[in-house]
Amino acid sequence: MKIAIGCDPNAAELKNILKGFLEEQGQEVQDLGDEDPIYANTAIDVAEKVAAGKYDRGLLLCGTGLGVSLAANKVKGAYATVCSDPYSVERSIKSNNANILCLGSQVIGVELAKSLLRVWLSNTYEPGGRSQAKIQRIYDYESCESK
Q: In angstroms, rounded to a whole number, what is the distance separating the alpha carbons of residues 108 and 85?
């Protein structure tokens, strides 16, 4: 899997640890930075590349994960979720087809983050399931087909 990763300076240490962890898991990781204090710049960069299909998924980090999620979700085709428990990570992929995971470096520790990434890597979207109509409504709205 090709994964784009980025964060603000507050989350650089965790980002570097998780980048190494993902590479150990055999993932192709592209680091898009951690120096811009305006987290929206990095979040939008990652989101645009994921939405364009250059990467399969994105991983964004800031203090809480909330700011990068808000910024990433402004990009058409980017579906970013903030998660801090394994079940939410699983459902973000299986039910919601999220393509960007956002984590908070000041909210979760290294071992929990690695555990969440294991779940994130081991799940895929289940098209046609009971959530399909719910997700389709989001896609339709985003495409201005039925506002």
A: 10
The side-by-side arrangement of strands in the sheet containing 28-31 is 28-31, 2-7, 57-62, 100-104, 80-82
* Catalytic one of 62, 83, 102, 144: 62
Domains of the chain (ranges, CATH numbers): 2-142 (3.40.1400.10)
62 in active site: yes
DSSP state of 134: H
Predicted confidence (pLDDT) per residue in 81-127, tens digit: 999 999 999 999 999 999 999 999 999 999 999 999 999 999 999 88
pTM (whole model) above 0.90: yes
**Which residue's structure tokens are 């908070």?**
104
Among 80, 106, 75, smallest CA distance to 12 is for 106
